[in-house]
């Protein structure tokens, strides 16, 4: 048995029982953090209710204060106007010795403005005091809520491991070639998202060569167009998606793709949803674009035509209301993304996102095995080789090539241990071939055929 197999068998024995214990610990940690989170959310909801009431009271007090000041201002204006009329130029008294023939302006001292009444002053003082009290109360409760929120972070740090250094290979990025590959992967990810300027800034700052920079944009140019159309579909814009589907119509038909018909179907229902004013346009669109799908989708097209019955009342309360839901548009956008990427032979996910998602999937298992190694004092088993100390089962979307497992040794083949096809047609691993051969003679473990071990041929999947 190979050394790595021995290590795996030892680790399997070590973690067979503790693994369940660590799973229970993780569940308890999640429950603890969830309780703390529920407590904070409940407190914030109470604060929201109290704040709504207090702010409403403050608004009422301010409204009352505005009314009081408005009345006082009106009284002041009335008093000043009355004083101005009494002392207006050109008016004279019958006792005036100068007579009416003399035009003389006399400076008079303006009347003193009327002060606020005692009741008005009392209302203003009371309103200001109440506002200050309520604002101070809200400020205190808001400050206390910060302490409750900070407890969530402390609970997470207390119940979960934040040290991931044991699962990292920092030496891999010390190589300049590896670092440049990482920069290219990040730049390609930005190009896929339509963030060309960010990608160019990264290329400039990491001093990437012109050939590598050109490769970044050339390799992702097709996906950038697909990504832009994907965003537009989610925004209910179908013009560019329809142009792309018509341009690749023959290829889509050969692959039996549904995306072209679904795009036309959605555009038709979009026109129908506009009401009676778009009825003629919808009919013309159906006659123009549904003809080549008539054989394959005859029944569905007939159902679509029946939607005209509901035009006077709208589609909101009909079986066709599903075409108005955002979920339908989201599903259409992802169907387009999948079919378009398959047609062009490109991945719908960037290499960077695949690596990050796969790493997040594997991280809990790696942290668990780290704790087991520490408790069993077998940290030396995790060396710097290219193999993980345990097998991690990733989701099917992370499998990009065929995998052959040797039926004899029950292990996956690798570059160092490739699969070999015997002359009888059976396939085993190279290690199994050497273990079963006696000199140059090999007897197939599945059939009684004896053959020359050197005649086995390597095969590629």
From TrEMBL:
One of its GO terms (cellular component) is nucleus. The keyword Ligase does not apply. One of its GO terms (molecular function) is ubiquitin protein ligase activity. The keyword Phosphoprotein does not apply. A zinc finger (RING-Gid-type) spans 406-447. Residues 222-279 form the CTLH domain. It comes from the Eukaryota. Pfam families: CTLH. Residues 406-447 form the RING-Gid-type domain. It is found in: Cytoplasm. Keywords: Cytoplasm, Metal-binding, Zinc, Zinc-finger. One of its GO terms (biological process) is proteasome-mediated ubiquitin-dependent protein catabolic process. This is RING-Gid-type domain-containing protein. The gene is Dvir\GJ20343.
């Amino acid at each position: 048995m190979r050394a790595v197999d021995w290590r795996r068998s030892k680790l399997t024995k070590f973690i067979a029982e503790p693994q369940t214990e660590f799973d229970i610990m993780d569940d308890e940690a999640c429950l603890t953090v969830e309780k703390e989170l529920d407590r904070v959310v409940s407190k914030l909801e109470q604060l929201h209710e109290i704040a709504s009431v207090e702010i409403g009271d403050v608004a009422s007090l301010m409204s009352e204060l505005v009314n009081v000041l408005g009345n006082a201002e009106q009284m002041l204006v009335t008093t000043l106007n009355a004083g101005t009329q009494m002392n207006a130029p050109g008016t004279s008294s019958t006792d005036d010795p100068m007579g009416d023939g003399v035009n003389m302006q006399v400076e008079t001292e303006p009347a003193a403005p009327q002060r606020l009444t005692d009741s008005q002053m009392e209302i203003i003082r009371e309103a200001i005091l109440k506002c200050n009290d309520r604002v101070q109360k809200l400020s205190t409760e808001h400050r206390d809520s910060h302490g409750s929120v900070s407890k969530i972070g402390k609970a997470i740090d207390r119940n979960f491991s934040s040290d991931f250094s044991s699962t990292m290979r920092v030496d891999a990025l010390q190589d300049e070639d590896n670092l440049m590959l990482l920069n290219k992967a990040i730049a390609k990810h930005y190009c896929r998202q339509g963030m060309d300027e960010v990608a160019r800034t990264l290329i400039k700052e990491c001093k990437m060569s012109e050939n590598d920079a050109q490769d970044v944009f050339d390799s992702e140019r097709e996906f950038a167009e697909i990504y832009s159309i994907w965003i537009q579909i989610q925004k209910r814009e179908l013009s560019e998606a329809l142009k792309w589907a018509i341009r690749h119509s023959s290829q889509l038909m050969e692959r039996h793709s549904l995306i072209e018909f679904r795009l036309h179907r959605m555009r038709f229902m979009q026109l129908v949803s506009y009401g009676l004013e778009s009825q003629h346009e919808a009919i013309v669109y159906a006659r123009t674009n549904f003809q080549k799908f008539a054989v394959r989708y005859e029944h569905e097209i007939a159902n679509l035509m029946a939607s005209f019955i509901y035009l006077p009342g709208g589609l909101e309360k009909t079986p066709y209301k599903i075409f108005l839901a955002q979920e339908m548009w989201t599903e259409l956008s992802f169907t387009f993304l999948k079919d378009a990427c398959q047609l062009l032979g490109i991945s719908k996910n960037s290499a960077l996102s695949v690596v990050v998602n796969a790493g997040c999937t594997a991280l809990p298992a790696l942290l668990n095995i780290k704790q087991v190694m520490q408790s069993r004092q077998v940290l030396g088993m995790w060396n710097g080789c290219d193999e993980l100390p345990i097998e991690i089962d990733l989701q099917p979307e992370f499998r990009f090539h065929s995998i052959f497992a040797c039926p004899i040794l029950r292990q996956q083949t690798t570059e160092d241990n490739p699969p070999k096809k015997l002359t009888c047609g059976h396939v085993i691993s190279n290690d199994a071939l050497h273990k079963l051969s006696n000199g140059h003679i090999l007897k197939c473990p599945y059939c009684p055929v004896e053959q020359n071990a050197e005649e086995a041929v390597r095969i590629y999947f």
